[in-house]
Amino acid sequence: MSRVVAVPPSPLRAFWLKWRFHINVLLLLIPLGFMPKYFADAALFRGDTGLGERVAGQVQVGPWSLTLAEFRNEGPSPDPAGPMKFFNAALCDNCAEQVKATYLRIGKPRSLRAAGVIFFGTPYRMGAALPVPERTPADAELWVTMEGWDGTMHQGSIPLSQASPATIAWLNKQGVKP
Amino acid sequence: MSKKSRSKLWFLVHSWLALPIWFFVLIVCVTGTLAVVSQEIVWLANPDIRASKPSDDAEPLSFDQVIAAIGRDEPKAIVRSIIRPDESHFALTVGLSYPDGRTVEAYANPYTGAIQGISPSFNFQQFTRALHGWWLVPFTHGYSWGWYLVSLLGLPLLASLVTGLVVYKRFWKGFLRPTLRIRHGARIFWGDFHRLCGIWSIWFIAVISITGTWFLIQAILGDNQISISSEPIVPVIARDKVPLSAPGVPAPMIALDEAIKIATQRIPGLDATFAFLPLNAYSHLQIGGRGWYPLMFQTAQLNPYNGEIAVSHLLSDRSPLEFVTESMRPLHTGDFGGLWIKLIWAFFGLVLSMMVLSGLLIWTKRTALATLNALKREAKGQRAPIAKRAESSEVHS
Q1: Domain residue spans of chain B
Q2: Domain B249-317 has CATH 2.60.120
Q3: For residue A154, which of A66, A91, A62 has the smallest C-alpha distance?
Q4: What is the pTM of this model?
Q5: A42 and A58, same structural domain?
Q6: Of chain B residues 23-42, which have a CB less than 8 A from chain A?
Q7: Please, where are the H alpha helices in B201-338?
Q8: Which DSSP helix (H) or strand (E) runs through B163?
Q9: In a domain, A58, yes or no
Q10: What is the ipTM, given to two decimal places?
Q11: Which regions span the lipid bilayer (chain A) (predicted)?
Q12: Which domain holds residue A35?
């Protein structure tokens, strides 16, 4: 045992012995590394950087229209209820008062009752979580249904490839099932 | 194992629990302390969130009066929510949606309804909470791994408390004869300091470690889609319960103050402190606040067109298990009884941070030696293998 103490440790070993319990200071690099992402997300949620990460464009819906944006420029996220894609939207300036509710659906809805998922939020900024089945064809259309306060209904569509190229890439990666 | 060597072992376990991660533990303690009083820090730094009285006899406005005042000042902005903070020196927090697409928190004067400012893009409160709670690691699918990293610390903290009390012989005597020797060198001082702080924060360390461990359990349950909540899932309002109206004329809704009156009648003892306005034409209006039990909120969801309560979630709806689990978060953050409780939490948070530091100082002065001695004793028993290892390390050098 006396030999163990007598052996002069190598500089590397001495360094290790001295600093091994301070290596955890490096854990601070984790929040430092994620800080830009944290502030970018905070700005995205507040709307400082616009409706979403990527604005898809205008969708004309009868006499009304909306600006559609992908909340994140990426494919659907996994969810217990199936893959979900988040879209944000803003109503046109002069239709905010006119529109009672706005819905989103892949494929043309047959009626108002099957119009799809409803948007939550204000006319200036609202969001919807759209279920995207894995078998969705790549040439699918995204349909927007708007309902007026008197019950009138208008519809419009945008190709899914234009609304979300990332979703098309995701579908292709899944291998579109016939 | 003899009694002496067993307590030695406990002592070593106690020493090693936080040591390899002392800096991480320290930063989590310090950021937690800051998060407790973050609202107060913002209050000191930013006059916008102060509830200044225009005159001594000024009365706080009702929620409807606040909305009317905002409508006058900023006719284009849409009010999404109003929250009256626990402490009366804070302005109302109003969720506002602006035509440019921003949804921000604005601070409204509770006496005049004037918007005093909007929350800056750097939100100190949210930032300290995110740093403390999940180490800024983003939530992508389920809970962030930063959340697991931080909440896992509840376990060594609890173990530190238990082993600390085991190695501190007759610790209860420390309450009667507090010892803090200042003139006997640094090691004695930090040892006394660590023990003194430790016994007076037993309750706090227990609360923080147990509630911290609950956050770990909560994440595990959440990520496995296991729910213990009795809170009903509220469907949207049925189509026939939303009146039709003339084109371009939104169906009239009941006044917010009326909704608060209905909710207060339905929930006896409700102190309505927040209102979330409907999120679309088929969504409910939510009114809520505390009741007799300050650690939990009660809510009612109303049809905004006729005032009918669709769902309510009262204290009496909670299972005994939920009383325990729902109390965990407020017990951890100390935000359930006003400024004084926050200050007590912040003080003991600071003490806990100092315990990490003093523990480290004691270790550098004593435990290094104790460990070396323990190794020596072990080596006496197994001289040959250790000597062999020493030789091999010689070769490397």
Answers
A1: 249-317
A2: no
A3: A62
A4: 0.89
A5: no
A6: 23-24, 27
A7: 202-223, 256-266, 320-333
A8: helix B154-167
A9: yes
A10: 0.89
A11: 21-39
A12: 10-49
